[in-house]
Amino acid sequence: MKRWHMLTVVGRDQPGIVAALTETLYRGGANLGEASMVRLGGNFTIMLMVEADADAPGLRRLLEPVTRRLQLHAHIDAIEGRLHEHVEPNVRVVVHGADRPGIVAQVTAALAANGLNILDLESDVGGTADRPIYIMTIDGYTRDGIAALERALEPLRRTGVAVRLTPIDTMVG
Amino acid sequence: MAVLDILAYPDARLKQTSQPVTEFDADLRRFLADLEATMRAAPGGVGLAAPQVGRPQRVVIVDVSGRPDIPHNGRMVLINPEVREREGEAVGREGCLSVPDYTGNVARAARIRVRAMDESGARREYACEGYEARAVQHEIDHLDGLLFLDRLVSRRDLFRRKVYK
């Protein structure tokens, strides 16, 4: 019986990680679902939906030669697949400013308190080592409208963090 | 009037180039009524192109007038449409009635002038901007066998474009 797993992989970035892992999964009869793979700092990170006959220990055994060779940490959780249930975002939040502790916590607390469901978040640290800047982009769904989010974020703006809210009006044709 | 079946990607008929309309007859008018009924029956649909319902002719309907607070030309029947001018660029999110459960970011001209014929064969010209310009470009793409999937840009692309605009 096929079942879904969430495979999480972390390791020092190097060329060929995705190719080696997905080749092994393909040869092992697994099917891939949605994924997020990105280099964070000098690390490569993978969150990958994998559908396979194997249970978690079986999948781990299948991947073991690759994870050992490339020195990757892998973690596997049983999950429900629930594909084809995308939630359409209706707002984008872009945040940037001098990097300091607490930006993410403060922004997301204000957003969560006003009913925003984060669907997609990515962030980077740019600038230089002595003057880092923080940049974050969030796509989310708000039931209560953008005005409430604007009000909630106003105090943060006064601390020098730039926050821009843009409605996402998806054109379907 | 009938609500027609909408073809779903990867149906090969969505990849073909549609042919110009030459006969502005009762059959065309019947088809236009069906195409419009199909567009209005689809949740959130603001445009539909003839090849999406399996008729490879250069016919699209766009009507974004139901969206709040945007400039629009109302209901537009665009037959043998041609984009005459393009200006600016905007990245926005698109979905497609022929591509269920997926949306993505696409760069389009921000403002266009489009020339077309209406249902009676009379020449019309429209200036479109923003959301409506996006809808018209998306529908005309269908006539050339292109889907928004062929024009996807990444989220990072979107961010950089916006910052430096």
From TrEMBL, chain A:
<feature type="domain" description="ACT">
    <location>
        <begin position="92"/>
        <end position="171"/>
    </location>
</feature>
<dbReference type="InterPro" id="IPR045865">
    <property type="entry name" value="ACT-like_dom_sf"/>
</dbReference>
<dbReference type="InterPro" id="IPR002912">
    <property type="entry name" value="ACT_dom"/>
</dbReference>
<protein>
    <submittedName>
        <fullName>Amino acid-binding protein</fullName>
    </submittedName>
</protein>
<dbReference type="InterPro" id="IPR050990">
    <property type="entry name" value="UPF0237/GcvR_regulator"/>
</dbReference>
<dbReference type="Pfam" id="PF01842">
    <property type="entry name" value="ACT"/>
</dbReference>
<feature type="domain" description="ACT">
    <location>
        <begin position="6"/>
        <end position="86"/>
    </location>
</feature>
<dbReference type="Pfam" id="PF13740">
    <property type="entry name" value="ACT_6"/>
</dbReference>
UniProtKB/TrEMBL annotation, chain B:
<keyword id="KW-0648">Protein biosynthesis</keyword>
<keyword id="KW-0378">Hydrolase</keyword>
<keyword id="KW-0408">Iron</keyword>
<comment type="similarity">
    <text>Belongs to the polypeptide deformylase family.</text>
</comment>
<feature type="binding site">
    <location>
        <position position="96"/>
    </location>
    <ligand>
        <name>Fe cation</name>
    </ligand>
</feature>
<dbReference type="GO" id="GO:0046872">
    <property type="term" value="F:metal ion binding"/>
</dbReference>
<feature type="active site">
    <location>
        <position position="139"/>
    </location>
</feature>
<feature type="binding site">
    <location>
        <position position="138"/>
    </location>
    <ligand>
        <name>Fe cation</name>
    </ligand>
</feature>
<dbReference type="InterPro" id="IPR036821">
    <property type="entry name" value="Peptide_deformylase_sf"/>
</dbReference>
<dbReference type="InterPro" id="IPR023635">
    <property type="entry name" value="Peptide_deformylase"/>
</dbReference>
<dbReference type="Pfam" id="PF01327">
    <property type="entry name" value="Pep_deformylase"/>
</dbReference>
<keyword id="KW-0479">Metal-binding</keyword>
<comment type="function">
    <text>Removes the formyl group from the N-terminal Met of newly synthesized proteins. Requires at least a dipeptide for an efficient rate of reaction. N-terminal L-methionine is a prerequisite for activity but the enzyme has broad specificity at other positions.</text>
</comment>
<protein>
    <recommendedName>
        <fullName>Peptide deformylase</fullName>
        <ecNumber>3.5.1.88</ecNumber>
    </recommendedName>
</protein>
<feature type="binding site">
    <location>
        <position position="142"/>
    </location>
    <ligand>
        <name>Fe cation</name>
    </ligand>
</feature>
<dbReference type="GO" id="GO:0042586">
    <property type="term" value="F:peptide deformylase activity"/>
</dbReference>
<dbReference type="GO" id="GO:0006412">
    <property type="term" value="P:translation"/>
</dbReference>
